[in-house]
């Protein structure tokens, strides 16, 4: 059972700046707290072909679960990135994002395909919450920097 979510969010900032923010691992934990905590997450911008073996906690409760993220596309010129992810109860998660210019700033488009077997509806709710939360945190980060 697969569920697809799509978000289009506006940021009053330069599209290149927004893309740099959303593809930098240093901000990933900041934009997912308190829902998800990462362990062994590397630092810096992602690059195509990168495989990130980490662990995460959902809602900060044990157990810490293994999680793998593969960067399958990273196109700086087009401001597009795609990942394939698995672990922590997910059979697979495919994430595609694109940042487009918009009047007065940028539009971030996230598409997420989730397969967690019979837990897919619950995983989709958690994804919906975290992706909506990310937007508010990113707005603060862009305003501060």
Query: What is the average of the pLDDT values?
Result: 93
Determine the N-to-C terminus distance.
41 Å
- Give the strand order of the largest sheet, numbering strands 1, 2, ... along the chain: 1-7-6-5-4-3-2
Structural class: alpha+beta
Order of helices and strands: EHHEEEEEEH
Helix fraction bin: 25-40%
- How many strand units? 7
Task: Please state roughly what percent of the residues sit in beta strands, choosing from under 5%, 5-15%, 15-25%, 25-35%, 35-45% or over 45%.
Answer: 35-45%
Q: What is the CA-atom radius of gyration, in angstroms?
A: 15 Å
Low-confidence stretches: none
Q: Largest sheet, described in full?
A: 7 strands, antiparallel
Brief digest:
By secondary structure, this protein is α+β, with helices and mostly antiparallel strands. The chain has helices at 15-22, 25-32, 120-144, and strands at residues 2-11, 36-39, 51-58, 65-75, 80-87, 90-102, 105-115. It has three helices and seven strands.
Structure description:
The chain is an alpha+beta fold. Helices cover 28% and strands 45% of the residues. The protein has a 7-stranded antiparallel sheet with strand order 1-7-6-5-4-3-2, with helices on one face. The longest helix has 25 residues, at 120-144. The radius of gyration is 15 Å and the shape is globular. The relative contact order is 0.25. The model has no long low-confidence stretch (mean pLDDT 93).
């Amino acid at each position: 059972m697969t569920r697809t979510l799509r978000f289009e969010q506006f940021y009053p900032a330069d599209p290149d700046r927004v893309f740099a923010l959303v593809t930098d691992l240093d901000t990933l934990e900041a934009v997912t707290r308190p829902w998800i905590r990462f362990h062994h997450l590397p630092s810096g911008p992602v690059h195509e072909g990168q495989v990130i073996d980490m662990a995460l906690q959902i809602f900060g409760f044990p157990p810490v679960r293994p999680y793998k993220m593969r960067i399958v596309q990273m196109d700086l010129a087009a401001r597009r990135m795609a990942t394939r992810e698995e672990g922590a109860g997910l059979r697979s998660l495919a994430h595609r994002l694109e940042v487009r210019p918009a009047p007065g700033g940028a539009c971030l488009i996230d598409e997420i395909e989730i397969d967690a077997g019979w837990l897919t509806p619950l995983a989709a709710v958690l994804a919906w919450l975290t992706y909506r939360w990310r937007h508010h945190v990113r707005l603060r980060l862009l305003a501060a920097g």
